[in-house]
Design brief:
It is a single chain. The protein is built from 5 helices and 2 strands; from the N terminus they run H-H-H-H-E-E-H. It is mainly α and 154 residues long. The protein starts with a helix and ends in a 12-residue tail after the last helix. It has a single domain, classed as Up-down Bundle (Four Helix Bundle (Hemerythrin (Met), subunit A)). Strands 1-2 form a two-stranded antiparallel ribbon. The chain is globular. Pfam families: DinB. InterPro entries: DinB (IPR007837), DinB/YfiT-like (IPR034660). This is DinB family protein.
């Protein structure tokens, strides 16, 4: 195993706690957008995180443009993240020992292409997920659903 594989295993463990929490939330609250979060819902943020992984890891890192799973409802989130897990595994295997080699990538929502390393792309997607995990938990709490601890535990 390498450090990135080990690190991603920890990410998946915290994600599982978040999924379990989200699945306990009534559907109406799970898809309810809050103005305090620019209208985002828990479901929207999970979908957004999945699309970030697809873009940086799949499209930019692995040059994959077609994905198997669609995200239409809350039941598909776990399936999509299983696909994400496979993408990350392929990404880690492809860039093993080459994490600092810059790749020229298209920056989202811009016409520019800039160098980004696989280390950057891997780190960006993980920190992006944890940022939104915090928002998802905050939305749930705001709607009256006390979350479990979703942080890493020993």
């Amino acid at each position: 195993m390498n450090t990135f594989t080990d690190q991603y295993a920890l990410v998946k463990r915290t994600r599982e706690a978040l999924f379990t929490y989200c699945e306990s939330i009534p559907y109406e609250d799970y898809v309810h957008g809050l103005d305090e979060f620019s209208g985002a819902s828990m479901h929207y943020l999970l979908t957004h995180v999945a699309y970030c992984y697809r873009y940086w890891i799949g499209v930019q890192g692995l040059q994959i443009t077609e994905f198997k799973s669609a995200i239409h409802n809350e039941n598909e989130i776990r399936l999509v993240f299983l696909e994400i897990d496979r993408l990350v595994e392929r990404f880690i295997n492809k860039y093993q020992n080459r994490y600092k080699v810059p790749l020229i990538v298209k920056i989202p929502f811009q016409d520019e292409r800039e160098p980004r390393t696989p280390l950057y792309m891997f780190t960006h997607t993980i920190t992006h997920e944890f940022h939104h995990k915090g928002q998802i938990v905050a939305i749930g709490r705001h709607l009256g659903h006390i979350p479990p601890v979703t942080d890493l535990r020993a």
